[in-house]
């Protein structure tokens, strides 16, 4: 005599299998629709290179020729990101002589690029002329450079003073940090560090003047939650390092154990 069959149980199992298969198909379908939409958008509104005006590639505002000419900063000091000559015998990260003699407050500094063409055109457009499309492109490229870096507990953008923020309308460092934090799934702490004084523009000053200009320029916001042990400061350009060093010293006094820096471009 055949064993009895629980038809309700079979029905439930069958429905679950059908639902799972439908979910898989839906996921595949949504991915296909997303890819088709991206192709359609690229066809109707093609990306244009922000450097030369040719058609962009990989859904970025950068053409292949300009992408190949980017001045990546792949050989650099681990502590200050200063470009160094490539060494075929180097098997580990290199620290320059200046940082060995005078260790900076940054544990590590990583710059995606050397400040050279076309960064010397894209960064000023982004920083001073409201070209947020250039900022988006720079953040995408910076992500390529920083994805392999050790992950911190939080990102902090170098803040503008509120007067300069009102005049400019946006904080260029924060515009770089937001997409990095989102893509790398790192908390962004824009509530912690703030600028006490409206300092003179650093670009007009030499190295000693820059250091004096930034003395006691940063502080930790009152009421901010405790900062984690390892944070990364994000900024657009590093020249002498005075801004990043001043911010790092403030964070160190607040109890942060390790401060790194991620910079879009390193100037010499």
Task: Lay out the secondary structure.
Layout: H1 7-44, H2 64-68, H3 97-101, E1 108-114, H4 119-128, H5 132-146, E2 154-157, H6 162-168, H7 172-184, E3 193-195, H8 207-213, E4 218-220, E5 230-238, H9 242-253, E6 258-266
Helix pairs in contact: 4-5, 5-7
Mean pLDDT: 85
Structural class: alpha/beta
- The domain tally reads 1
Under the CATH scheme, the architecture is 3-Layer(aba) Sandwich
User: What is the fold-level CATH name, i.e. the topology?
Assistant: Rossmann fold
| Shape summary | globular
CATH class: Alpha Beta
Largest sheet: 4 strands, parallel
Task: Characterize the structure shown.
The protein has 268 residues and is of the alpha/beta class. The protein has helices at residues 7-44, 64-68, 97-101, 119-128, 132-146, 162-168, 172-184, 207-213, 242-253, and strands at 108-114, 154-157, 193-195, 218-220, 230-238, 258-266. The longest helix has 38 residues, at 7-44. The chain is globular and about 50 Å long.
Task: Give descriptors for this structure.
9 helices; disordered N terminus; 4-stranded parallel sheet; 6 strands; single chain; two-stranded antiparallel sheet; 268 residues; alpha/beta; globular
Quick structural gist:
The chain is an alpha/beta fold. 42% of the residues lie in helices and 13% in strands.
């Amino acid at each position: 005599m055949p064993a009895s069959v629980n038809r309700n149980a079979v029905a439930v199992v069958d429905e679950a299998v059908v639902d799972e298969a439908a979910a898989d198909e839906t996921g595949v379908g949504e991915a296909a629709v997303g890819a088709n939409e991206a192709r359609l958008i690229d066809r109707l509104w093609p990306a244009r290179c922000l450097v030369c005006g040719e058609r962009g590639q990989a859904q970025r505002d950068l053409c292949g020729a300009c992408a190949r000419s980017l001045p990546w900063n792949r050989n650099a000091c681990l502590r200050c990101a200063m470009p160094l000559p490539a060494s075929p015998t180097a098997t580990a990260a290199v620290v320059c002589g200046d940082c060995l003699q005078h260790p900076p407050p940054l544990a590590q500094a990583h710059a995606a690029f050397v400040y050279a063409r076309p960064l010397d055109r894209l960064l000023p457009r982004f920083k001073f002329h409201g070209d947020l499309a250039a900022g988006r492109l720079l953040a995408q490229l910076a992500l390529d450079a920083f994805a392999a870096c050790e992950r911190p507990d939080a990102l902090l953008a170098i803040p503008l003073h509120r007067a300069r923020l009102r005049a400019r309308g946006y904080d260029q460092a924060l515009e770089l940090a937001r997409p990095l934090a989102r893509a790398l799934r790192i908390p962004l702490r824009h509530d912690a560090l703030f600028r006490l004084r409206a300092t003179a523009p650093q670009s007009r000053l030499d190295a000693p003047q820059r250091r004096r200009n930034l003395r006691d320029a940063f502080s930790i916001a009152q009421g901010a939650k405790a900062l984690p042990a390892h944070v990364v400061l994000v900024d657009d350009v590093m020249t002498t390092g005075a801004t990043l060093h001043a911010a790092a010293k403030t964070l160190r006094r607040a109890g942060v154990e390790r401060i790194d820096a991620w910079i879009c471009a390193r100037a010499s």
